[in-house]
Amino acid sequence: MTYEEFVDARLAPLLRYAVMLTGDPHQAQDLVQETMVRVQLNWRRVARADSPERYVRRMLTNQYVDWRRGSWVRRVLLRGEPDETVAVSTDHTQSAVDRDQIWSWLSRLPRRQRAVLVLRYYEDLPDAEIADVLGCAVGTVRSSISRALATLRAEYVEA
């Protein structure tokens, strides 16, 4: 398989995965672009891997976890305060509000915990594969999932 064939076959799923990690389609595109440049530069090593897709997913995840750790990048969410006096009917916009709330909660999780949740619930990977992607022990994966879900539950109860 050539690099071009790999990109044709796997770019869209990698981009969807990156969107789930970052919560922002534009940042996801930047993340995938940076990762794919690295993949192209190291294509011989990637192509020799047992599973090139898993190897690239691991590269992307590591890039996300390490990406822009500096304080110079902060995500700002602009939302108006709801007017309590106006009765709001429940319609399709409520799902958008709920989705925004979930993205907000996910964005406050540490990057590794967020990556573990995305790998588990979006990519539907078993613990062993998640551990392989993140380069950690299976027990670390399980404890990260447990901590992340506990944090999300606490946020949900507060809301």
Folded structure, characterized:
The structure is a single chain. This protein is mainly alpha-helical. It has two domains: 1-68, Rna Polymerase Sigma Factor, Chain: A, CATH 1.10.1740.10; 99-159, Orthogonal Bundle (Arc Repressor Mutant, subunit A), CATH 1.10.10. The protein contains eight helices and no strands. Helix 6 (111-122) crosses helix 8. It is globular and about 60 Å long. Mean pLDDT is 84; it is low at 70-78.
Quick take:
With 159 residues, this protein is mostly helical. The protein has helices at residues 3-22, 25-41, 43-48, 52-66, 92-107, 111-122, 127-134, 138-158.
Distance between the termini: 49 Å
The appropriate CATH architecture of the largest domain is Orthogonal Bundle
CATH class of the largest domain: Mainly Alpha
Outline the low-pLDDT stretches. 70-78
Number of domains: 2
Shape type: globular
CATH H-level superfamily of the largest domain: RNA polymerase sigma factor, region 2, helix turn helix motif
Helices, by number, come to 8
Q: Could you report the average pLDDT, rounded to the nearest whole number? A: 84
H and E order? HHHHHHHH
Largest sheet: none
**CATH-assigned fold name of the largest domain:** Rna Polymerase Sigma Factor, Chain: A
Query: Can you count the beta strands?
Result: 0
- Structural class by helix and strand composition: mainly alpha
Name the beta content range.
Answer: under 5%
What is the subunit arrangement here? single chain
Organism: Micromonospora tarensis
InterPro entries: RNA_pol_sigma-70-like, RNA_pol_sigma-70_dom, RNA_pol_sigma-E_actinobac, RNA_pol_sigma70_r2, RNA_pol_sigma70_r4_t2, RNA_pol_sigma_r2, RNA_pol_sigma_r3/r4-like, WH-like_DNA-bd_sf
Protein name: SigE family RNA polymerase sigma factor
Family: Belongs to the sigma-70 factor family. ECF subfamily.
